[in-house]
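Entry 14. Structure prediction run on the chain below.
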Amino acid sequence: MITDEHIKTFIYQAHRYGDAKLMLCSSGNLSWRIGDKALISGTGSWVPTLSKEKVSICDIASGKPENGIKPSMESTFHLGIMRSRPDVNVVLHFQSEYATTVACMKNKPKNFNVTAELPCHTGKDIAIIPYFRPGSPELAKSVIDAMKEHDSVLLTNHGQVVCGKDFDEVFEKAMFFEMACRIIIHSRMEYDVLTPTEIEDLEVYVLGKISK
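Output returned:
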């Protein structure tokens, strides 16, 4: 059951992401799984100043809004990710300054692992998909397909999408995504990345994984 506390928490997190300059005005959208329902920022809403009147409650299976508030036009990929990824509870589509600049570059980086934070938190591989019209079925399908194997996606000439188990994890992924792109741009494309061996070393000793 969706409660007022759920909605207050969702609004607080939306404002938190906005305060971090992950999106401007009506750019970007946010969703949160609660049982078999999802809270989604509404069509035309400004996530940085989201209000209760702009929070849509949707059935994840059918995609239908249940409180009369139309969800974001990108709700198709939010709900699609949740259907295909039971481990994902939060999805954020954002357009931060440096990451969106990279999304618009002709020669995009093929490797974003400029610091340890990227493979440790954002994902050692960031999917890059071509441009599709915002809100289109083609965009939704491409994002859903990419998110089956990734937690972070760069949308050409559009923005970024990250997903995770909770609000903190998603915030961390988005912030480190933006940090990596800021480093890449400030380096004027003259940057080093971690080697596969260095990333494996992180997996064993920083993340506590056992290499097999």
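The mean pLDDT is 94.
Filed with the rest of this week's runs.
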